UniProtKB/TrEMBL annotation:
Residues 6-80 form the DNA2/NAM7 helicase helicase domain. The lineage of its organism: Eukaryota, Metazoa, Ecdysozoa, Arthropoda, Hexapoda. Residues 88-213 form the DNA2/NAM7 helicase-like C-terminal domain. Signal peptide: none annotated. One of its GO terms (molecular function) is helicase activity. One of its GO terms (cellular component) is nuclear body. One of its GO terms (biological process) is termination of RNA polymerase II transcription. InterPro entries: DNA2/NAM7-like, DNA2/NAM7-like_C, DNA2/NAM7_AAA_11, P-loop_NTPase. It comes from Rhamnusium bicolor. This is DNA2/NAM7 helicase-like C-terminal domain-containing protein. It comes from the Eukaryota.
């Protein structure tokens, strides 16, 4: 008797999974019994997986692959130094890109229009990594008034922490608090907006959460 998962699996036109879980018994068993058939596999972020991982879906009998990714962004994470030297961290996408760069029948199609960042932010990566080919088309929905600058850099000299911790910085936390408080007073428009704060360390994140909890 088929369970609910099997019924959903057999009736679905599109199945989303990770590369590792696509060869789980839940999917592979029906494949072996000719109860399930896939015609196409789309691998998103195909440059962030090693070549061996991207070949796993071949076991599903798929004969058409569409790789979506950007070889100028993060490669696969490979910690072993010997494996890195042998090129294990290079993706199938990146290898195809290298081999077909000068071919007229290059199978890789580049998307030239970007909507995720303002032209001022896009300018440096566009010149450095994409030969100036990107065209910016920012969409202003729920526009903040007065308009903020695309980006600002604040250089804190001799910033640190009282306990000399390498993973948190109280002076930077205070700066962020002041920035948030200033934005709250500065932005008078009725639009709904959110602010994201990114830090590489959990200790700094927890320190930030404690200090900005009173800001709404």
């Amino acid at each position: 008797m088929k369970c609910a998962e099997d019924i959903l699996l057999f009736r679905s036109n599109v199945i989303c999974t990770t590369l590792n879980s696509c060869v789980s018994s839940r999917i592979m068993d029906p494949i072996r019994k000719d109860q399930l058939k896939f015609s196409c596999c789309i691998i998103d972020e195909a440059t962030q997986c090693c070549e061996a991982e991207s070949l796993l879906p071949i076991q599903l009998g798929i004969d058409k692959f569409i790789l979506v990714g950007d070889p100028q962004q993060l490669p696969a994470v490979v910690c072993n130094k010997d494996a890195q030297k042998l090129g294990y961290g290079k993706s199938l996408f990146a290898r195809i890109d290298d081999n077909f760069k000068e071919h007229v029948d290059n199978p890789i199609k580049m998307l030239y229009e970007q909507y995720r960042m303002k032209p001022e932010i896009c300018e440096y990566p566009n010149k450095t990594f994409y030969d100036g080919k990107l065209k910016s088309f920012p969409i202003h929905i729920n526009k903040i008034i007065p308009e903020l600058k695309p980006y600002l850099l604040f250089n804190l000299m001799n910033a640190g922490n009282e306990d000399n911790s390498a993973y948190k910085n109280s002076e930077e936390v205070q700066l962020i608090y002041n920035l948030l408080d200033t934005l709250k007073k500065y932005i008078q428009s009725k639009c709904n907006y959110t602010i994201g704060i990114i830090t590489p360390y959990r200790a700094q994140k927890e320190l930030l959460i404690r200090h900005i909890s009173d800001i709404r």
